[in-house]
Design a protein that fits this description.
The chain is globular. It has helices at about 1-35, 260-265; strands at about 35, 60-70, 85-95, 100-105, 110-120, 125, 135-145, 160-170, 175-185, 195-210, 215-220, 235-245, 245-255, 275-285. It has 2 helices and 14 strands; from the N terminus they run αβββββββββββββαβ. Helices cover about 15% and strands about 45% of the residues. The strands form 2 sheets. It has a 12-stranded antiparallel β-barrel. By secondary structure, it is mainly beta. The longest helix is centred in the N-terminal third of the chain and has 32 residues, at about 1-35. The termini are far apart. A hairpin with a 4-residue loop joins strand 10 (about 195-210) and strand 11.
Length: about 290
């Protein structure tokens, strides 16, 4: 009798162990089937001057202050460029996790800009995965010069329209890269310097050094500039410093422009011939609405 009870007890243990292993295997298989999204491809909504694929979450407001100074090569008389300063103040708001809007004003050429960003794809693993994050960007901006009779007498004469597709991939926890096909249409331009429709390709990258430090680089190549153009392709490098709710970016760039119209089409200095400007971006995020679970 005791041997039968012992045998039944042993069989029960074996059955429970087998069931537990099967259940664990099913749970592990289910975990593999779940889609996991990549986060923090870039730490900021800007790489250097250009936008990254990153957006603010639903109900989140970002306040952005950007400064660009004169050329460092101007020497000590101009405090290595610090005597000359341009500023952009902007706001970006997340309507949803995928849709965001923004506006700003730059002292460089006195430009107002407004834009929309929409996240088309998110890099992910699992069922229906995507190897890239893709964000669409559209913007309009207007120069606010005093109205005078002539070519630029109306606001529409001074308007530009920008369309971009931001395509990025986080290759590892430390390294991310992005390409940015760009088209810019300006209603009225000086034909001896610019073309109404400027195509460009942007390339950007980020390498994470520590939990709070990362280096960035960005380059915009103009595909169809006019012959003998006085302008250069935009190049910049930077250091991201994250401090809680702030992201502080130190920038070295050959442009003083801080929106696409100016830094893609009107970069006036050669990075490799003394045309380097120091600058910085400061961002501060505020959660205006509670996040929904």
């Amino acid at each position: 009798m005791n041997s039968r009870i012992g045998l039944l007890f042993l069989l029960s243990i074996c059955a429970m162990q087998s069931y537990g292993q099967d259940l664990l295997a099913e749970l592990q298989q289910e975990e593999k089937k779940q889609k996991e999204y990549t986060i923090a491809t870039f730490k900021s909504t800007r790489i250097i001057n250009g936008h990254s694929v990153e957006m603010k979450g639903a109900g989140e407001l970002e306040f952005i202050i950007s400064h660009r100074f004169g050329t460092i090569s101007s020497g000590s008389y101009n405090l290595f460029g610090l005597d000359q300063s341009y500023i952009r103040i902007g706001l970006e708001y997340g309507i949803t996790d995928r849709l965001g809007v923004g506006l700003g004003r730059s002292s460089f050429n006195k430009i107002y800009d407004a834009y929309v960003k929409y996240k088309l794809l998110r890099q992910s693993t699992g069922p229906g995965s995507s190897p890239f994050t893709v964000t669409a960007f559209g913007s309009i901006n207007i120069q606010d010069f005093e109205q005078t009779p002539g070519t630029y007498s109306t606001y529409m004469d001074r308007a530009s329209y920008i369309g971009q597709l931001l395509i990025a991939r986080k290759f590892s926890p430390k390294f991310s890269a992005q390409i940015t096909p760009t088209i810019i249409h300006t209603n009225v331009v000086d034909q001896s310097r610019l073309t109404n429709d400027q195509a460009a390709m942007g390339i950007g990258a980020r390498y994470k050094l520590t939990r709070s430090l990362a280096i960035n680089a960005e380059y915009f190549y103009r595909i169809n500039p006019i012959a003998n153009t006085p302008y250069y392709n935009s190049l910049g490098i930077g250091l991201d410093i994250e401090t809680g709710g702030h992201v502080f970016q130190l920038v070295l760039s050959n442009t003083q422009g801080m929106i696409e119209r100016t830094f893609v089409t009107e970069t006036a200095d050669d990075f490799f011939d003394g045309g380097i400007h120091f600058g910085f971006n400061i961002t501060r995020a505020f959660q205006l609405k509670k996040k929904t679970k």
